[in-house]
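Summary for the lay section of the report: proteins are chains of building blocks that fold into shapes. Here we show the chain for endopeptidase La and then a coded description of the shape we predicted for it.
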Amino acid sequence: MKKRIYLAAFSIGAIIAVLLTFIKLPYYVTMPGTAQKLEPLVHVKNGDEDDGDFMLTTVRMGRANVISYALAKVRKYYELYPVEEIKQQGESDEEYTLRQLHMMENSKQTAIAVAYEKAGKPITYKFLGVYVIRVLPDMPASRYLRAGDRIVAIDGKKLQTAEQFIEYVGQKTKGETVKITFERKGKKQTVPLALKPFPENPERVGIGISLVTDSDIVTDPPVEIESEEIGGPSAGLMFSLEIYNQLVEEDITKGYTIAGTGTINEKGEIGPIGGISQKIIAADKAGADIFFAPNEKGAKNSNYQEALKTAKDIGTKMKIVPVDTFDDALRYLQTLK
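The coded shape description reads as follows.
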């Protein structure tokens, strides 16, 4: 009799545990991730080998279930975000992931351009077409296109940039048909699509896609970055520093382990990111000596100010350094002994 009671109790407990794990709540939970050395991921052909290390830092994020939601309520540096703050309206999980991965690709290309320009090395661009980030439901494109497709031509005209596509379609009117040539898994297809007004802006017509320019950067010497499944643009600064360090003869790390975060644009300007406190924790656990944090031009609530508070709270000996530009980071590194 007791055995049956124990078995029933165990079965009920197992069912409850499964439900608590697999029932998804309308939140995402974030927590400290990892700090990863960049040298194994960044390969400049015949690049210089150095003693120190640059590291990118990450934040772990996932859809909240009952258990992770409860943990986020009681654990410090675990954060909850409503789904609508993370994903765009109507965006599927696949589209969100593709958007994050494409942001990483853009970040890598910009980092390469900044580093090569600073090192006085040549770069050119090879345009591949227009990359589909998202397909809107109930619009013409939803019949044929999906996120991840590459549009290479419209009405037989070869496309190089998203701006070309937008300008061409912008000259059309409701009901006009355009022939879209797109590539999926190496195979090309051409389909006719009648233009339709956008639900949120009836004055504009289109096929119903969010799109970005798809291009490759060509460098001399060649460079390859293996970012695996890391998404988002926040590793831009650290990628650019690692690439530059391999391009020049001197070791700009001076033997230190240097972590950091921040987006980077073509001018070398560094932008803020999310999860700075969680990245400070990740870098401290990995033994970093220095951490570059976006200064946001001295803003009161900047990433740098938040990083300082977290560093003090966890008692790290890691030096927190404010940076607004790629040159700021280089200037600081030149002061190291």
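Put simply, here is one thing we learned. Residues 125-216 form a domain with the Pdz3 Domain fold (CATH 2.30.42.10).
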